[in-house]
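FIELD: query
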Amino acid sequence: MNFNSDNALEQFVKRFFEFNGAVMEQRPGGLEALLPERLALRLNIPEYLHISTEENTKEKYAVSYGSSLLEKIVDAACDTAPLISCSFDFNYIKRQGFGRLIQDQFVFYNCVGRVKGAAEVRTEYLLLTCRYMAQSDEQKEGLVSLAFNLETGAAVSEMGRIFDTVERTFETASRQTILGDAKIKEILTWVQRQAGKVLEREIKPFQDSMNRRFQRDVANLEEYYADLKKEMEESLNRPRISDQLISDRRTKISLIPDELERKKADLFKKYSIRVRIELCGGIQIRTPAVKILYQTSFGRKPKQLSMIYNPATKSMDPLVCDGCGDSIFNIRFCDHLHMLCPACSKKCPLC
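FIELD: result
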């Protein structure tokens, strides 16, 4: 079976070569690449080559999941997880109309709100590219992106999809922000919280396929043992069958349900999916944004929220639950005005 992804693979390959000093040009069906000598030697490929990204191509240097060239690129990318920096540049940034945008994106329960002020700011995002491998009776590999606002911790998944469409300038290492141990620990918490959700969506077709095969094999198994039981029960009515043989067959019939359950358990193990994910690299993104002060009123209790308009996604970043840290658009408040997701609102973890 073949599970195709979007152009994320081609963009990953293009960025890998560019980050390692190669000159790349987009061509129909792939990429033209001029590599530094050290990179060509490391990957054991020519310094000048055409990299095909077409499906089912027979060209020597092709990138597709499982191809030898992609394996070499991924191995090189994973030797160290590079972190680079870039700045987003915009000719125009929205300066009004945030109230309507907030109403369209967010749902506030039991409260009303209004925009009190807005100001242009600079903020940072961290875009992480990760490689995953899902293994069951078959195997699926791919790349996923995780993106977070470094100031708020909000997960902004759209940053990975729009990164290559935004005008940007890559920066030297001297301008890169050093992430301290405390921030790295915090980022790991964000990744642990979001990776499962992202992977669940990414491997759903693969999971559905394994589920269908599991259900098909279980149905075949149940049919086989039902026929076997029926045949053995009918054999008990044959004339001149000995009492010992009748006893032996009844014992075997009684064991069929346990044997069927063991076979089902074996199938469950066979089609269970094990997923491994590892970091390939990260990009720190500096970008202008708009910080919005949003005044909410919960009964007679006011609460002021700080929200960020992201000009790259042309939308508001999600807020972050005070209880679990999840990124949310459905907002609830407890009696002490902690901002909560629907799950935490049932019993506020902070109260």
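FIELD: remark
DSSP finds nine helices and 15 strands in the chain.
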